[in-house]
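All the exercises in this workshop are built on plain-text protein records. A learned vocabulary of local backbone shapes supplies the integers on the structure line. Once this layout is familiar, the rest of the handout is easier to follow. An example says more than a description, so a record of this kind follows:
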Amino acid sequence: MLDSTAILDLREKHQAFFNSHKTEGVLKRIQYLKKLKKAISAKEEAIQEALYKDLKKSAFESFTSEILMVYKELDVLIKNTKEWAAPVRVSGNLINFPSQDYLLKEPFGSVLILAPWNYPFQLALLPILGAIAAGNTVVLKPSEFAPHTSKVLCELLESVFLSDWVAVVEGDAEVAQRLLCVQWDYIFFTGSTHVGRIVAQAAAQFLTPYTLELGGKSPCIVDGTTPLQKTAKRIVW
């Protein structure tokens, strides 16, 4: 568990790594995404075991709703990142004539990702993959309510990335609050609307751009006209 001083040090290290332009090369980013995919494949059993210990997810559910979705995202990013990162030629303005004009895709910098407990592997890694593909550094704070998956994420990411590029900070809500007291270049949060408001307020102090993926419920109303056995099976599924 990191204290405020250690978190500031981590932020400075990530800023220095980003400013050194070590995340800029698109081919390098793709190479590391491929390395991550291999590392996940090698740890599939450990990931499934961790998800079972944390949430009692079966191997089938762990693979289909967590691991497979990460593989699919990796495949899309590996295939398309080079094209997505390329400059785009656009029409110029008469004021700038003659000129050649382009839109350049640039990373934000150091990204903080706060992940939830319900899909602790998938919802931690998906935003990381996008951030890495775009050329950012990442600090991940996994949910303390899925400690076994958090540990596996630590081991997995440490086996692929330097800690100055991708780091995992474990801890409770107090650690998350300390992280939010530091200025990041972007914040990605998945969780409840209540905590989302806290994240938005913290980001506003520094005018930090952010994405809030706020949790919702899927209520079902079952009346007396429905076949209960079939309905129950569908709700459970």
Notes: The first strand starts at residue 88 and ends at 90. The longest helix spans residues 59-85. DSSP finds nine helices and seven strands in the chain. Residues 227 and 233 are 10 Å apart (CA to CA).
